[in-house]
Amino acid sequence: MNKLSPQAPKNSTVIISVVLVLLGLFGATISPVIAANGDWILLAGYVFLLLGVYVRGL
Questions:
Q1: Which helix (H) or strand (E) element contains residue 33?
Q2: Is 43 exposed, middle or buried (0-12, 13-18, 19+ CB in 10 A)?
Q3: Helix (H, G, I), strand (E, B) or coil at 12
Q4: pLDDT at position 1
Q5: What is the pLDDT of residues 38-56, one digit of tens each?
Q6: Cys-Cys crosslink for 17: which of 2, 7, 30, 49, Cβ 3.0 to 4.6 Å?
Q7: How many whole angstroms separate alpha carbon 22 and alpha carbon 24?
Q8: 20 CB neighbour count, 10 Å cutoff
Q9: Spatial distance between the Cα atoms of 37 and 29, rounded to a whole number of angstroms
């Protein structure tokens, strides 16, 4: 089994995760649906960034 080694994520991965985090934080001003799911959107942004660090090519 290969060891997980951290690497720099692609720029697109970082941009998408930043957009998700900002949407989770400030989405309540945009739509009530986003406000209801803001915690999940915020979590998705962080998880996507972590996957980008450990999964090659993401």
A1: helix 32-36
A2: middle
A3: helix
A4: 55
A5: 999 999 999 999 999 998 8
A6: 49
A7: 5
A8: 21
A9: 13
2: tokens are 């290969």
Locate the domains of the chain by residue range.
Answer: 11-54
Q: Please say whether the dihedral angle defined by the alpha carbons of residues 51, 43, 17 and 34, taken in this order, is positive or negative.
A: positive
DSSP 35: H
- pTM, whole model, 2 decimals? 0.83
With tokens 């980008």, the residue in question is: 52
Number of residues written out for the chain: 58
The amino acid sitting at 34 is I
Over residues 12-38, the pLDDT tens digits come to 999 999 999 999 999 989 899 988 999
